[in-house]
Amino acid sequence: MPNLINQIQMKEMTTSFKDADGMVFVSLNGLTVEETEGLRSGLFEQGVELRMVRNRIAMIALKDRGLEVPKDALQGNIGCCVGSTEDAINAAKVLHKSPARKAGKVTLHMGMLEGNMLTGQDAVAMASLPGRDELRSMLLSCLVAPSTNLVGILAAPGASIARVIQAKIDAGEEGAA
After folding, report:
1. Sheet with 78-83, side-by-side order of all strands
2. Which H helix or E strand runs over 108?
3. Residue-wise pLDDT tens digits, 32-73
4. Backbone φ/ψ region at 66: left (φ over 0), alpha (ψ -120 to 50), beta
């Protein structure tokens, strides 16, 4: 029979996994306290929390969610970021850009996005997805570009006439002098 702490952790993890649209599982090996705090604060700025999880409990909670995970997928010190789809993308970005990942201490193991399991490579690819604000600015620039070009085309004949008149005025002043 599992002990009370494991039961509480299991219930909490199952609830958070069932409510989540996105998750990122990351291996954290050999991090110093400063690196861990830097990683956590970077994630906190994006509104995401990094929690260390017990591998067996996480596997059971994922199975309860209906997700099939390979048995060797969660090994070692595993952290999990759980939340909305955007939270998972932001977490993947922060984890992928961290100096600890570049030093080989942080590895994206797998993820889940809108009910689909992602491999570690997919989780890294997810880090390159643009965020909501970036997508909005891209869309806005696509919408504004044609009207900006149209205004430039419509203003061109008037500007040409103004330049011709100014040239005549300048020529008249030179002839008078």
Report:
1. 50-53, 78-83, 22-28, 106-113, 116-118
2. strand 106-113
3. 888 888 888 888 888 888 888 888 888 888 888 888 777 777
4. left
